[in-house]
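Sanity check. The docking grid for magnesium ion depends on where the pocket ends up, so I'm generating a full predicted complex first rather than guessing from homology. Inputs follow.
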Amino acid sequence: MWAVRAAVRPGFWLFRVARDCGAPRAAPPLSPCPERALAAFRGGLGCPEGRGGGGRGPGADGRRSRTGGKEGEEEPEAAEEEEEEEEELLRRDPLLPAGTQRVCLVHPDVKCGPGKPPGTRAEWQVVEAQALVHTLDGWSVVDTVVVPTKTPDRKLVFGRGTLERLTEKIRGSPEITAVFLNVERMAAPTKKELEAAWGVQVFDRFTVVLHIFRCNARTKEARLQVALAELPLLRSHLKNVTHLGGRGRDSRHIMGSGESFMQVQERLLKDKEAKIRKALDRLRRKRLLLGQQRRRREFPVVSVVGYTNCGKTTLIKALTGDAAIQPRDQLFATLDVTAHAGWLPSRLTVIYMDTIGFLSQLPHSLVESFSATLEDVGHSDLIVHVRDVSHPETELQKASVLSALRTLQLPRPLLHCMVEVPNKVDLVPGYIPTEPGAVAVSALLGLGLEKLKARLEEAVLRATGRRVLTLRVGLAGPQLSWLHQEAAVQAVDVRPEAGVADVKVIISDSAYGRFRKLFPG
Ligand SMILES: Nc1nc2c(ncn2[C@@H]2O[C@H](COP(=O)(O)OP(=O)(O)OP(=O)(O)O)[C@@H](O)[C@H]2O)c(=O)[nH]1
Ligand SMILES: [Mg+2]
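Predicted complex below; grid placement will be based on this.
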């Protein structure tokens, strides 16, 4: 377990979004059918592979399209072809060597100038880099070297003298099997020269982060997004290929095509990019359709966002009692959106979306390729911002997340009504939140959860135009069971002598309109 976690640089972020198909947990009495709340996700879009269909087909009540299939559903043959094409796009060479690696972490510490990361300190950047390495199976950091530098982006990153000292150190340490150079991207010639000098493989953040993403992306959409983010890496490798089977990069007439090797490779990459974008677009349309179905069902959706490792998954587990949720002490533990049903104090069912972002020198292409999934956050009714207040750079993390959220152009009320949840207060004795409306919790120990649920209920009711009403219904009629189906029944006060009951419900404006229409008077 890390003593501290990721350092942040404002302006860099990434959200993860995945849909889980897990069954709902035991509901409290009088709960308004949580099965229906999750039905929208089950068998539907973006279910992680192996857990319910890998993203094919709409929700249970999808409308029929003109072709006779359900809305958003393709013909079986076309669907099969698409599936094959998507799998083909996902077939790739490994990014990092398999098996145990003992890594020397080399951190260029930029003291000043444009390359200096704002706000954060070298020690936290090193801690984050170590955390990244430890996230990889079988990898460990055996040595860490912090090297002051002015311009980490020049060809060999370091000055001649520093490079010589590093070479001596790495060459003289046989236990070192790889070097993690903590720069965002390393040009291919730099990698080649450093590897030649040091005699071991050298990796940058982009490659390591991409590898972690590859391992953790479970839905087809997330996997394709990672594949899209990898394209710049493939392009930069391409630029440095000068020979293939003895042909120079500019040799003409490969296979009689009149194209050079470079041109053929570039065309293939372009085709690949177009196919990935098309497949992503297909999946996105399905996801949006599912979102519409979800909204038709009128279960409030609460998006839980925050810096990586702040405890989002742990909090959702605590709020829903979902035993299947497995929080992990890792960066990028989840890259997919998962949906989980929970209940607020009034027994109102809500869907919690485990959707979060990461930051800190993330390559732009990674950020960009994942931004589509953030649409889900924009369609939620409430955003909960979880914070790890035990982290030394918690304020910087908060600023980073807020700045990322602002760039999403979310509806103003959604941003304005965001609920802040300072988490891990068990590690900060005497912590008192400073932000108005914030509710401090320890998701791990279950502290502050009842207060948080009450706060969420109040915010959800306000955000979704629901109200608490007491309605008088006849005991002989269908009103009471209708209310159980369509609203959150809180209390039923039966008056047998009058043959009526006073029913306290939380009901949406539209459901109340339907109730009045169905049962006038
Ligand atoms: N002490 C303490 N640890 C916590 C608390 N909440 C979460 N953790 C720990 O923090 C680590 C990360 O928790 P997660 O819930 O996986 O965090 P996350 O934000 O979902 O992380 P990513 O999905 O990787 O972004 C785990 O080891 C949790 O046990 C808390 O309230 N107190
Ligand atoms: Mg998580």
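Relevant for the grid: Residues 312-313, 327, 333-334 surround magnesium ion (ligand 2) (CB under 6 Å).
Also worth noting: The chain has a mean pLDDT of 75.
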